[in-house]
Amino acid sequence: MKEQQAVNQQQKFQETSKETAVQGPQPGQEFKGPQDGQKFSRSAFDFKGFFGLIRSVKPRFWQLWMGLALGLIATVMQLMVPKVAQTLINQLGHHVDMTLVAGVLVLFIVSAIISAVSGTTLGVFGENVVAKLRDFLWDKIFAVTC
C-alpha cells in the first residue's frame, strides 16, 4: 500500500515537473520580457560585439600572450618527456645513464613549473577582465539610477 502511494506521488511529481518545466526560446523565436510585455528575439552570439566589449576595458594583452606562449612551451616540453623516457626505458636492461634520468626529471619539473606559471598568468588576465567588466557595469547602473 505504501509502495503504491510512493509510486503515485513520484508519477505526479514527474508529470508536474514536465508541465512546469521552463525552457528558453529557441533561436529566432520571440518571448515576452519580464516587464510591460516586451518582446525580445534571441539571435546568434555576436563575437564582434563581445570582443569589442572586452577591448573596451583595456585588458593587459601581454598577460594573455605570455600565458599562451608559456602554455605552448610547457606543452612541447611535456610531449618531450615520454620521448626522452623511452630512451631511458630502453637502457634499463644494460646500464642506467644517470644524466638521462636527471634530464627526464628536470624536463618534467621545469615543464610543470612553466605550465603552472602559464595557468596563473591566464587566470590573472581573465580575472582582471571580469573585474573591469563588473566595474564598468556598476558604473553604468549607477549612472542610470542617479
- C-alpha Rg, in Å? 28 Å
Question: What is the spatial order of strands in the main beta sheet?
Answer: 1-2
Measured as a percent range, the helix fraction is over 70%
The number of helices is 4
The biggest sheet amounts to: 2 strands, antiparallel
Number of strands: 2
- Decide which structural class fits the backbone: mainly alpha
Description:
This is ABC transmembrane type-1 domain-containing protein. Residues 1-37 are annotated as: Disordered. The protein is mainly alpha-helical and 146 residues long. It has 4 helices and 2 strands, in the order αββααα. The radius of gyration is 28 Å and the shape is flat. It has helices at residues 2-19, 47-56, 61-90, 98-145, and strands at 30-32, 39-41. It starts with a helix and ends with a helix. Strands 1-2 form a two-stranded antiparallel sheet. A hairpin with a 6-residue loop joins β1 (30-32) and β2. 73% of the residues lie in helices and 4% in strands. The mean pLDDT is 81. The relative contact order is 0.09. It has a domain at 59-145.
